[in-house]
């Protein structure tokens, strides 16, 4: 009989990959799973329960928050806080990081960075959205207050990262640095089951995802790259297909499964692009690399960028390795 591994079983089975594992990371991943189920439940009912629309406030980036943004943030914060596995949390929706200091957090070793609901412009129109998370071990000693330096670590220090994609199915995809695995939620049973083991980008991709409406603002290298992907070259499968949803999680997920490249470059109006290094670029970069892909700002490996502030942005080019390298070539020529 076919064996259906649940996410819970998989997390426990793979705990042994960590020589230092004391079960805390596993417990933390289980808490993210639990919060993900709660957010999923809200999203599925959003149209019925008057939680679509704007919350009437702005987040730290000056973007208006949707009610579900606020709700997803509250669910993740309270679930992760109540279970005691982390000593701090930073969220795209909160101005400052949170420090947890109750007795249950005394020995907590980890901090979490989260984009509770990514692609929120798509919520009200029933298009896929996601949650992105990134986990680091704290730098400051256990038992002390978490500090900014615990949050401003480069992506290559991530212990785990992943996302939930609330699409035609809800899937949780994560890595702990030992490959990427995806688990599809069965709402009838209430469990996630391993459906996408050891995900790798296919060797060749021919999809590109970029907001071409910003074309005039892009750097010369990106403009030339976009023209190149649109040129006819049968041997190289060009022109590529364009697919862009406005939800990073959806575009990344499709590109990872089918092959493709996602670009959110810097523009004249946004000198470092739009995406946030800590909540969006780093976790996706970790997943991409673990799936055999690559993530770059056009010149440097995303995961080597030293963050200077919590809500810092970075230009982001991510996908099949060869595709990203081609885009870098165009950037570096200019
Ligand atoms: P958000 O976190 O406020 O939802 O913004 C991030 C989103 C990404 O998911 C998406 O790829 C991008 O912003 C779309 O931006 P644009 O509408 O400028 O193309
Ligand atoms: Mg986002």
Automatic annotation (TrEMBL):
GO terms for molecular function: fructose 1,6-bisphosphate 1-phosphatase activity. It catalyses: beta-D-fructose 1,6-bisphosphate + H2O = beta-D-fructose 6-phosphate + phosphate. Keywords: Carbohydrate metabolism, Cytoplasm, Hydrolase, Magnesium, Metal-binding. Substrate binds at residues 118-121, 211, 244, 262-264, 274. Its cofactor is Mg(2+). Binds 2 magnesium ions per subunit. The keyword Cytoplasm applies. Pathway: Carbohydrate biosynthesis; Calvin cycle. Its EC number is 3.1.3.11. InterPro entries: FBPase_C_dom, FBPase_class-1, FBPase_N, FBPtase, Fructose_bisphosphatase_AS. HAMAP family: FBPase_class1 (MF_01855). This is Fructose-1,6-bisphosphatase class 1. The lineage of its organism: Bacteria, Pseudomonadati, Bacteroidota, Flavobacteriia, Flavobacteriales.
């Amino acid at each position: 009989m076919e064996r259906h591994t649940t996410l819970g079983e998989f997390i426990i089975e793979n705990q042994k990959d960590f020589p230092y594992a004391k079960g805390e990371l596993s417990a933390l991943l289980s808490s993210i799973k639990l919060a993900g189920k709660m957010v999923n439940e809200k999203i599925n009912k959003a149209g019925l329960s008057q939680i679509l629309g704007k919350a009437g406030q702005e987040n730290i980036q000056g973007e208006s928050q949707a009610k579900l943004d606020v709700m997803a943030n509250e669910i993740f914060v309270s679930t992760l806080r109540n279970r005691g596995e982390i000593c701090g949390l930073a969220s795209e929706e909160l101005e400052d990081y949170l420090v947890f200091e109750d007795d249950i957090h005394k020995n907590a070793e980890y901090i979490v960075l989260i984009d509770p609901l990514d692609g929120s412009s798509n919520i009200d129109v029933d298009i896929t959205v996601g949650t992105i998370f990134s986990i680091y071990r704290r730098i400051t000693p256990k038992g002390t207050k978490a500090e900014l330096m615990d949050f401003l670590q480069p992506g290559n220090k991530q212990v785990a990262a992943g996302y939930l994609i609330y699409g035609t199915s809800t899937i949780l995809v994560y890595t702990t640095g030992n490959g990427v695995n995806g688990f599809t939620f069965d709402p009838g049973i209430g469990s996630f089951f391993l459906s996408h083991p050891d995900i790798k980008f296919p060797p060749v991709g021919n999809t590109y995802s970029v907001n071409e409406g910003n074309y005039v603002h892009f750097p010369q290298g990106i403009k030339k790259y976009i023209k190149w992907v649109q040129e006819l070259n049968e041997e190289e499968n060009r022109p590529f297909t364009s697919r862009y949803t406005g939800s990073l999680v959806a575009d990344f997920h499709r590109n990872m499964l089918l092959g493709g490249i996602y670009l959110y470059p810097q523009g004249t109006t946004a000198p470092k692009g739009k995406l946030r290094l800590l909540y969006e670029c780093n976790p996706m970069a970790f997943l991409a690399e673990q799936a055999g892909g690559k993530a770059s700002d056009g010149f440097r490996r995303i995961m080597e960028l030293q963050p200077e502030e919590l809500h810092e942005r970075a230009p982001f080019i991510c996908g099949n390795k060869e595709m990203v390298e081609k885009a870098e070539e165009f950037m570096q020529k200019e």
